[in-house]
């Protein structure tokens, strides 16, 4: 009874079951209250051999509020009262085990490898005496795998085949003297050891990854203790207690060594596979870089594309296979495939390195790269060394465990270093001449530095850094106890919503994209404020105290589904409008000559200015001698307007899936992204030359954008570990759960990769 996960794992395996939906971590009472309605009546009925009651309120309370919230005290009091009442219903031959399957961090999460997550309490109780001696002063540490053989033997069923646990000897003592208890314990240990030995023998034949010398040692140890147990069991007289205790200790030694050997074998790394994977990743990145440089402008035949790479790959696989054969080692198919793919990519790269473009294609190249091979073009194109060096440093640092743990702090450092070095590079070239453009560049650099610094306020700590304290801003507003602080945070969240909606509309109005009467413009005018109001209302309900809304529980549950679903519907409607008619340009015709002010002329990018100049010469005068004039509003931002509208809609959606105060991190993301784009525009204008291709994005912008995406993965409260996954996102708008796993997977995935989704646009 309780957690419906049991039904999914063991369908139709129970004589009687009372399951309740358990995946909604915001629901503290449904599972627990459902168990309490059936628990005592079922216990008194006696029609059971094993009864499982899986409570979830404490676990869900930790996820929702944390371990120090007043709601946790209420749930613990409820569990204490349940145990007091349950003990009174137990018979003398009933064994009660109360255990937790995991612990809890200071933020209520679990799933990592810290001590507070791995350790959990185990309480064993029976009205009949269990222990012959007084309990030890320090509680005994029992691995969770030991519960498997213990419960199996107590229930009289076979121990599961793949078990490597050890029986809990104290539960197999009899009510007689010490010798009788030892006999019962040795019998349990004998069954346990034989089952483990049978598993090791079968596993070693199938997998062949257990160390041979350790396996032989375990087999010798098992034969010795098995013979000793048979000898003691065959003695007519009662064996001496010291001999029985020594045999019990040897059983324990065998079982613990067997578990250690298996754990060591199953948790080891495979350096060959790791090196092969790194080689394949490196060659793939190198191939992408080559393709971005000259691959599209070189003449490649089918032979160059397929024959030569396949030949290189085949040679690589043959040489590696021959090396394994000479050493007498078994070749791994995955490793051979990875090395073969890497060799084929390196062969393609070598061909590009030594090939010179044909004259027909070389003529199409922009100077000074005309007619250069890849080798010369790579050296002839300065300026990419710095961003590519930082990108290489970021990739190679993934081999360092310290970087993996501290990646959330390293990425902002690399981003700030890149933008500062780019500004210094312009200074060294004499491009910073004190003009307005230079001051705008320096202002955007300062904005990036400030945003990178402030993003550290929203990072979550990993269990490998016990001295680190996770930001209190990551939790939901409902966990804030001070009403004044809660109101202040809520006000800041409203400011974020208003800023995003107003900023987008202000930008579109400034560039003339709100003059069109199309449906998309109407949606921006009215849909954005409506989205902001809907999110604000949803946050107001989720941040309210449960005690204050207890009388409106039904209405609150309805609002918790209506508000998010309305937000989802509006966002989908807006995105469909963008895909349907993304152009927000308003064209106005006139016979009078157009009046162009300097401010409006500056809004037209250079590309459209050139197009306008080329088309002016083709205009014909009308009959009255005047020239036809056309005014186009929003032409200069025809592409960026649709992109900005889409990103704003996605931003509203992703903010809804996160905790309320993380909207401040999203505001930093938008500000930093705008600063990076403006900085790139200023730097491009300051360093432009006659041969600058307006359609080529420099590596500085690409690397900075990629670093920003990784930075805000951490700045939105995420870590690449299971305890940091925001499972609450799966139930935004779906309080009663889901029929399938597809929609919750999409919601959790969108929550996790929010920064990558936004910055990928």
From TrEMBL:
InterPro entries referenced in this protein's UniProt entry, alphabetically: Alkaline_phosphatase_core_sf, Phosphodiest/P_Trfase, PIG-O_N, PIGO/GPI13
Pfam families: Phosphodiest
Top-level division of the source organism's lineage: Eukaryota
GO MF annotation, one: mannose-ethanolamine phosphotransferase activity
UniProt keyword annotations, A-Z: Coiled coil, Endoplasmic reticulum, Glycoprotein, GPI-anchor biosynthesis, Membrane, Transferase, Transmembrane, Transmembrane helix
GO CC, one annotated term: endoplasmic reticulum membrane
Keyword Membrane: yes
GO biological process: GPI anchor biosynthetic process
Parts forming coiled coils: 215-264
Location(s), subcellular: Endoplasmic reticulum membrane
Membrane topology note: Multi-pass membrane protein
The keyword Coiled coil is annotated on this UniProt entry: yes
Transmembrane parts of this sequence: 305-326, 333-351, 434-452, 488-508, 520-541, 562-580, 630-655, 662-679
Pathways involved: Glycolipid biosynthesis; glycosylphosphatidylinositol-anchor biosynthesis
Protein family per UniProt: Belongs to the PIGG/PIGN/PIGO family. PIGO subfamily.
Protein name (database record): GPI ethanolamine phosphate transferase 3 isoform X2
Organism, scientific name: Python bivittatus
Taxonomy of the source species: Eukaryota, Metazoa, Chordata, Craniata, Vertebrata
Originating gene: PIGO
């Amino acid at each position: 009874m309780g957690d419906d996960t049991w039904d999914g794992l063991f369908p139709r395996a129970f004589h009687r079951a009372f399951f309740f939906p358990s995946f909604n971590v915001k629901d503290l009472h449904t599972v627990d209250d459902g168990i309490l309605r059936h628990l005592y009546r079922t216990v008194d009925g006696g029609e059971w051999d094993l009864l499982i009651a899986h409570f979830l309120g404490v676990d869900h309370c930790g996820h929702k509020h944390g371990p120090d919230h007043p709601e946790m005290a209420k749930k613990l009091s409820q569990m204490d009262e349940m145990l007091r009442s349950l003990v009174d219903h137990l018979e003398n031959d009933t064994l009660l085990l109360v255990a937790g399957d995991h612990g809890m961090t200071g933020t209520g999460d679990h799933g990592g490898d810290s001590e507070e997550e791995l350790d959990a309490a185990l309480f064993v109780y029976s009205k009949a005496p269990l222990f012959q001696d007084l309990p030890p002063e320090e509680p005994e540490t029992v691995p969770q795998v030991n519960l498997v053989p213990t419960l199996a033997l107590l229930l009289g069923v076979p121990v599961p085949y793949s078990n490597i646990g050890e029986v809990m000897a104290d539960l197999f003592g009899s009510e007689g003297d010490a010798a009788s208890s030892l006999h019962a314990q040795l019998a349990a240990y004998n069954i346990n050891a034989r089952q483990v030995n049978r598993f090791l023998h079968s596993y070693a034949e199938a997998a062949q990854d257990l160390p041979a010398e350790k396996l032989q040692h375990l087999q010798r140890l098992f034969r010795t203790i098995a013979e000793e147990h048979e000898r003691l069991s065959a003695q007519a007289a009662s064996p001496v207690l010291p001999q029985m205790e020594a045999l019990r200790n040897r059983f324990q030694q065998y079982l613990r060594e067997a578990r250690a050997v298996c754990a060591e074998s199953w948790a080891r790394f495979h350096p060959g596979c790791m090196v092969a994977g790194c080689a394949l990743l490196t060659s793939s990145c190198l191939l992408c870089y080559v393709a971005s440089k000259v691959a599209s402008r070189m003449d490649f035949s089918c032979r160059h594309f397929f024959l030569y790479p396949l030949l290189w790959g085949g040679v690589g696989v043959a040489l590696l296979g021959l090396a394994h054969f000479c050493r007498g080692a078994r070749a791994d198919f995955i490793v051979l495939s990875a090395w073969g793919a890497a060799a084929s990519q390196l062969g393609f790269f070598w061909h590009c390195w030594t090939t010179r473009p044909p004259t027909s294609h070389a003529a199409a190249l922009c100077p000074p790269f005309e007619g250069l091979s890849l080798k010369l073009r790579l050296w002839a194109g300065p300026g990419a060394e710095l961003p590519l060096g930082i990108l290489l440093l970021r990739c190679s640092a993934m081999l360092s465990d310290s970087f993996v743990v501290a990646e959330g702090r390293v990425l902002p450092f690399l981003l700030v270093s890149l933008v500062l070095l780019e500004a210094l590079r312009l200074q060294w070239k004499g491009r910073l001449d004190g003009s307005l453009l230079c001051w705008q560049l320096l202002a955007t650099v300062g904005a990036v530095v400030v945003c990178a610094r402030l993003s550290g306020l929203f990072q979550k700590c990993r269990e490998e850094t016990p001295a680190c304290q996770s930001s209190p801003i990551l939790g939901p507003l409902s966990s804030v106890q001070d009403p004044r602080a809660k109101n202040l945070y809520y006000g800041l969240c409203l400011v974020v919503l208003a800023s995003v909606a107003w900023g987008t509309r202000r930008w579109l109005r400034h560039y003339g994209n709100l003059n069109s009467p199309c449906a998309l413009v109407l949606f921006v005018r009215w849909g954005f404020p409506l989205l902001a109001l809907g999110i604000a209302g949803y946050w107001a309900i989720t941040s309210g105290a449960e005690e204050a809304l207890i009388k409106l529980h039904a209405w609150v549950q309805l609002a918790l589904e209506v508000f998010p679903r309305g937000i989802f519907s509006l966002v989908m409607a807006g995105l469909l409008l963008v895909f349907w008619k993304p152009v927000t340009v308003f064209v106005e015709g006139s016979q009078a000559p157009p009046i162009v002010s300097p401010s409006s002329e500056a809004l037209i990018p250079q590309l459209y200015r050139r197009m306008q100049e080329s088309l002016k010469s083709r205009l014909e005068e009308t009959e009255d001698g005047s020239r036809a004039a056309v005014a186009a509003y929003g032409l200069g931002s025809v592409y960026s307007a649709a992109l900005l509208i889409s990103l704003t809609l996605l931003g509203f959606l992703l903010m809804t899936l996160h905790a309320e105060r993380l909207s401040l991190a999203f505001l930093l993301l938008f500000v930093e992204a705008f600063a990076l784009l403006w900085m790139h525009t200023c730097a491009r204008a300051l360093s432009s030359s006659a041969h600058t291709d307006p359609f080529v994005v420099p590596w500085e912008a690409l690397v900075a954008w990629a670093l920003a995406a990784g930075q805000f993965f951490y700045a939105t409260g995420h870590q690449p570990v299971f305890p940091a996954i925001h499972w609450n996102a799966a139930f935004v708008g779906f309080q009663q759960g889901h029929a399938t796993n597809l929609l919750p997977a999409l919601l959790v995935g969108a929550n996790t990769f929010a920064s990558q989704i936004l910055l990928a646009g």
